[in-house]
Every structure is written in C-alpha cells, then in structure tokens.
Amino acid sequence: MAKQAEQIKKFEEDAITQTYFEKLKVLISKKSIFAQQVGLLDVATYLQEIFEEAGAEVTLDNSYAAPFVMAKFASPVANAKTLIFYNHYDTVPADSDQIWTDQPFELSVRDGYMYGRGVDDDKGHITARLSAVQKYLATHDHLPVNIIFIMEGAEESASVDLDKYLAKYQSHLAGADLLVWEQGARNVLGQLEISGGNKGIVTFDVAVKSAERDIHSSYGGVIDSASWYLMAALQSMRDRDGRILVEGIYEQVEEPNERELALVEAFALANSESATELYGLTLPTLAAERSAFLKRLYFEPSMTIEGFSTGYLGQGVKTIIPAEARAKMEVRLVPGLEPHDVLAKIRKHLVKHGFEQVEVTFTLGEMSYRSDMSAPSILNVIELAKRLTPEGVAVLPTSPGTGPMHTVFHALGVPIAGFGLGNANSRDHAGDENVSIADYYSHIELVEELIASYE
Question: Which residues pair with 328 in a beta bridge?
Fold first, then answer.
C-alpha cells in the first residue's frame, strides 16, 4: 500500500503526467467505435493534434476503413535505433446491459483507480507512453532512439486493413529494435506480465434449413429437424474432452519449444481450480492437471459455440419441428494454422460425415503469433522491468487472447513485447473498465527507463 500511495503522489505532482491525463479525459469522452462507425476520424484527428503539439511528425492516413495515425519523434543520434509503440484508439461499445458506476465515456477517479471505456483498452496506454517521451525530453536535450507511435482504429474488429497500412509505411517501420505492444497487465500476484504473442482466430456462421416452414411436431418421429441436424453436425467436430475432431488440424500445429513451455510452466497462474472459482463453473474443466490445462490454454487450438438459435423460445409451448437452425462458431488458432485453411477443413469434415446441408460462412480471421522472448531487445525490457517492479515479473511466450500480432510481425519482422498498465480486474470490454493510478504511473516510469536504456 505504501508503494501505491507513493506512486499516486508522484502522479498527482507530475506536471507532464497531469497534462496528458487531461488529454486522456478528452479521449475517453470521444466515442470511437469501429463496429458502429462512430467517431473514428474525430479521435484520429485529436491524436494528430496531441502528437503535433508534443513535437512529433504526424501522418494521418484515412485511405482505408479506419484512419491510421503515425507519429514520429526523430533522434539526432547517428545510426540511432528505432522503438515502435503499437496502439489502437477504437474501443468496444459500452452496452446497456453492462453495469457502470459512473458514465462510461467520462473518465472518473475513485479510490486510486481511473474508470472509463478505453482507459485500459487502449487509450490510457497512448497517453501514458506519450507522457514518458515528454518526461524524458524535459530532462534531456534529445532522444537517444527514434520513437514511432502507430495507432489504428479497427483493432476491436479484427484490425481491418491494418495490413494495408503496414505495407504502405513498411519502409518507416521495418528494422526497428523493438515494438511495444498495445497493452498488458499485472496478474493476481501483482507481477508485471510481459508477453510475446497471442492466439489467432477464425469465426464463422453455420446454418441449416430443413424445410420451407416449421412443421407440426406430431411428425417428429418421421421428419428430421434443422435443430437436431445442426446439433449433430457440431457434435461431430469436437469430442467430450474438447479435442477438435476435424481431420488435419492438429497435424499442422507448431509445437512449443522447450523455452516456451518452461516460461508458461514458470509464470502462468491459470489452472482448473482458479477458472472454476473465477467463473463459478458448474461443469468440470476439460483439462484438470496443471500442465495439461496450460498446454491446452496456451498452445493448442479450441472450438467454441458462441451462440445457438433455433425454434420457438417464447412463453409457453409451441409444438413445432423447427425448419431453421443457426450457430455462431469460432476456432482459436495457434501457429501453423491459417484461418481459411481451417475453415476449408471444417467444410470438408461436414461433407465427409453426412452434413453437407450445413452452410458455412466465414466472418473474420486472424493468424496467431508466438515468441520465445529471447531477442536481446526483449531481454532488455525484462531486466528493466525486474529492477522497477518489486512484485516481480511474469514472462509469457503467448496469451490465450487474440490480436493482430502476427499481422504486425509478418509485415515488419520486429521483436514484440507486450506489457502495460492493466490489472487482473481491469474489466476490459465490461462495465467499470479501470486501471490503477499507481500502475499507470509505474508504466510511465518503465517506458521512460526503456527510452534511457538506448543512451
């Protein structure tokens, strides 16, 4: 608690940090939601203003679905290396079914925490990192490293067109020493997590139409229904232990190397018991033993039914055989698996097993990326974090979540490290999204030290 109080005091007394905290308030107040096509250019323009005021050379490119902002702080040092910060300024909505103590698009402060949509995911990281750049420049004549911020506006919608922007500006970005990922968090032990990857994903809709109209259920013994047909089709693709039964998928999976397995074994905290407690599970987990649980979570693909819809779900009874059934599906991917290829294998599986009437429609896909965290620039981050984080550091080669790391690495070939200012209960995408003020300031200090390490 003493450390937190000290960090809060420094946050409150730091003029530069307070300047950008006020700008964060404005950023939170400006909705920027790609899924609803709300406010993207407005927020991108505001970011352009903020970074130009800070002395950066700024490019705002609105060529594709969401504006792309690139802000460059050049170092006068000959042959200076380059440090990239990747962020996004779009957020998910603050849906009416979410519980917020205060207004989601007004940054509020309570009991040492900041609350607001995007404060962790991901606008708070932008202002914290810019604060660190300005704090360094306030005490030094120049930067020892070139610093480039790249900020996209469609991350929450599979980073639509990010690959096009990266290709367009590849000459500015390739060859950098390190790319710092959008965000990161402290785990439940307070350790700062530094990660180097994420799973990919392919999402798709499946649908069956078995008749022109719903049928009286008296025919249930002689007429098949869309409901049973689709349920049987889905059941054919996964066994009761959660293993995917689609032929050819596991043969393409790139197995983790010894260092990647060792990092997860040493630092991952998730297990069967913690998942049961966290989510109030009433069904057993699909893997109970710790090493099997972690291997499944971090290094293996998974198939999930996101939603299933068929028939009559209103009040009372309606005795019908439903003529239509549909479901939303996903497969979380690991290295070796490509979204469209996985979907092609699923279509082939359905036909092979007699479910050719299932219509499969691709919705989105992202590749996966994983790092063994051994690049020198990543090892430098780890050592800096250890010195500045009394609670300790947890190094992970990947995360169970999904993001465009593969897209960025494929385009730029730059080592990537993800760390940030979130906490184990930051509630990203939920009500009362939050970050600790102490963690916010600690992130500023770590980024400032990272810049100084290039002197």
Answer: 205, 307
Nearest Cα to Cα of residue 27 among 124, 148, 157: 124
pLDDT of residue 106: 98
pLDDT digits (tens, 9 = 90+) for 386-416: 999 999 999 999 998 888 999 999 999 999 9
Contact 355, 229 (CB under 8 A): yes
If we measure between CA atoms, which residue out of 252, 255, 263 comes closest to residue 372?
Answer: 263
Closest of 44, 40, 46, 72 to residue 58, by C-alpha: 72
CATH class of this structure's domain 200-253+300-366: alpha beta
Residues 6+ apart with CB under 8 A from 443: 125, 128, 129, 132, 419, 420, 421
Threshold 0.85, pTM exceeds: yes
Q: How far is CA 407 from CA 256, 281, 414, in A?
A: 20, 34, 11
Residue-level pLDDT at 440: 98
* pLDDT(3) > 90: no
CATH architecture of 2-198+369-452: 3-Layer(aba) Sandwich (3.40)
Report the 10 Å Cβ neighbour count for 317: 8
The end-to-end CA distance of the chain, in Å, is: 33
